[in-house]
Design brief:
- Helix content is 76%, strand content 0%.
- The protein has 101 residues and is mainly alpha-helical.
- The protein has a single domain, classed as Methane Monooxygenase Hydroxylase, Chain G, domain 1, CATH 1.20.58.
- It is elongated, with a radius of gyration of 20 Å.
């Protein structure tokens, strides 16, 4: 929306600005959530392939994304903690039941 300069001051200018801001934030949140989704999915495929080494490397990256999402308010902190715990449980189960590829 490039009508910023053309806006006349009035009742709804703040509403227009708020709408613009919410669109920006929603886009940012959507991007972060999709990155989390993709990373967790990739981690899951590594676990199913029993690729312990690469899964271990992927864990900190996943944790970092979840922590950033919780910090910015994109995800609730308890939701992020739950997802992190589930990832850790997957790694733990893989470590307890190692088998040849």
């Amino acid at each position: 929306m490039s009508t910023m300069a053309k806006l006349k001051t009035g009742r709804h200018t703040s509403a227009i600005k708020a709408w613009r801001k919410s669109e920006k934030l929603a886009s940012k949140n959507r991007g972060l959530k999709s990155r989390i989704h993709d990373t967790v999915k990739e981690f899951g495929t590594l676990v199913t392939k029993k690729d312990m080494e690469n899964a271990q490397k992927m864990l900190p990256k996943s944790y970092s994304l979840l922590d950033k999402a919780a910090k910015s308010g994109t995800l609730h902190w308890k939701s992020a903690a739950r997802k992190k715990a589930r990832l850790a449980a997957q790694i733990k189960s893989l470590a307890q039941n190692p088998s040849v590829k």
